[in-house]
Amino acid sequence: MSSLLIGYYSKTGNTKAMAEYIAAGAREAGANVDLLPIEKVTIPSLPSYDGIILGSPDYYGGMAAPVKQLLDDSVRLHGQLAGKVGGAFSSAANIGGGNETTILGIIHGLLVHGMIVPGVAVGDHYGPVSINAPDERVERQCKKYGLLIADIARRLKDEG
Amino acid sequence: MSSLLIGYYSKTGNTKAMAEYIAAGAREAGANVDLLPIEKVTIPSLPSYDGIILGSPDYYGGMAAPVKQLLDDSVRLHGQLAGKVGGAFSSAANIGGGNETTILGIIHGLLVHGMIVPGVAVGDHYGPVSINAPDERVERQCKKYGLLIADIARRLKDEG
Amino acid sequence: MSSLLIGYYSKTGNTKAMAEYIAAGAREAGANVDLLPIEKVTIPSLPSYDGIILGSPDYYGGMAAPVKQLLDDSVRLHGQLAGKVGGAFSSAANIGGGNETTILGIIHGLLVHGMIVPGVAVGDHYGPVSINAPDERVERQCKKYGLLIADIARRLKDEG
Amino acid sequence: MSSLLIGYYSKTGNTKAMAEYIAAGAREAGANVDLLPIEKVTIPSLPSYDGIILGSPDYYGGMAAPVKQLLDDSVRLHGQLAGKVGGAFSSAANIGGGNETTILGIIHGLLVHGMIVPGVAVGDHYGPVSINAPDERVERQCKKYGLLIADIARRLKDEG
Hints:
The structure is a homotetramer. Chain A is of the alpha/beta class. The first copy, chain A, starts with a strand and ends with a helix. Chain A is globular. In chain A, 66% of the residues are buried. In chain A, helix 1 packs across helix 4 (136-159). Chain A has helices at residues 14-28, 65-73, 99-112, 136-159; strands spanning 3-8, 32-37, 51-57, 85-92, 116-118, 129-131. Chain A is built from four helices and six strands; from the N terminus they run E-H-E-E-H-E-H-E-E-H. Chains A and D meet through helix 3, strand 5 and helix 4 of A and helix 3, strand 5 and helix 4 of D. Strand 5 of chain A pairs antiparallel with strand 5 (116-118) of chain D, so a sheet runs across the interface.
């Protein structure tokens, strides 16, 4: 069994709803999931997870500052997250409005930590994206993504 | 009056339709527009334009290889495009499927040429995006974008 | 005469030194420059500038959280920065360590604001980059960049 | 034992030299490595590998067109590379000249294929970068990267 953190920042509830769908998918795959708003995520807890998924609304083409602050603060334990699985998701107000650059900004941070990031062959390739409130398409993408991350985290953990 | 090149690669006709809407917007703003499939664009012609807009379908999160080939070939006149206005647009099969990274890949190439790239405050921020066939929203975004690029090209040209 | 804001976040002094070189280049081009640490930049002042250049160290492949916070807070005046000139620069500890993604993350924010972003044909193409303390190469890149941004800001202002 | 493909495009020999160092690292980790110039890579062979690493010089901030063409052509077997490990590397003429965007452009393509991409906690975070001819630093980065990719490919393969 793998343990996952899903941390999200949400003002309108859209990113939170996505986080819940991802958690549902990951739990279906047997993962132990901590689902937390970003302000409840603590730096010392991070190395205890096999996988970390972060979500943010798209603010000016990037993650919200509180999510970036968490990444910046995590420098204290730099190196301890290497080899863990990472993922990202975002919600935005418009198509073409920065949802991909928001996800990729988070992914850059996870790669700098030496984490391992999977893409998605069919669907939202870099991570789930919602334009405004998540609809059924987004729910499906999120559940699938949670399952994918949980599965890779379990396989890498088993194999140590 | 400014002169613009709109070069596009299109298999399904979606990217071509976007190019035509952008051309319509630019012509409305008084620009002299050459609208060409990428294989008809010649390298020696590039410095004659005040602005260059390139469009591509999203192939694996980036521009189609023939568009990249044009950029690669343009190295022959490196430096001669500096200070000109640049823009990009893309069509894709999915939301979250690489439409933004396709546009930004083109924009990176234009920036390396020293071109000047405007964003869009309201709408598709990095450049127009169509998910499948362009609908009315996309038509509006494209016309607005053509107008924006034509306007900046004209202002920079007048001021020389 | 154009007026520029150069806002930077700096812990070690490297990003600050770059900001000073950029300011020197912009002043040489006749610009009126406000050079400020990011915590002294106020949102209501932003629309008064013809151009805005933001600099940050590379933290996890992106701008430092306080720089992101400024961008997030600037949503209050969204639309008022459209058409202004924008630029970015970064300092990093390693080659290949995220300096380009830091600059591009800032540029994404400026494009979302509808700002106009120039690239550099010869040198650091997306904006000046320093690996550790700025050396002579970086000083040259920064001065040139300040001059470039000041020049475009002036031309766009004159032409209104 | 895992099997890896290292495909590269090289005009000056710099990217080829990097490819050879990565191959050396991967072989040290026990991987079976095919080291091939991009024009010798065949699409039908791709699904036979546990991991694929692609390298390119930085041309206008992105991979060379022949590398992009390979990605575009690989659409024929879309889905068959999902879950494999992917990596990227680049050589460039300048710091800040597009080496990171070149690597990330390749990584976007691998993520769209559903591949799994690791970052590097210490060193060149997104993948190895050489500024001009590879020096000792680059040699070290490349060997380490080959070893990392080989190790993850082996672990994911064992665990199936």
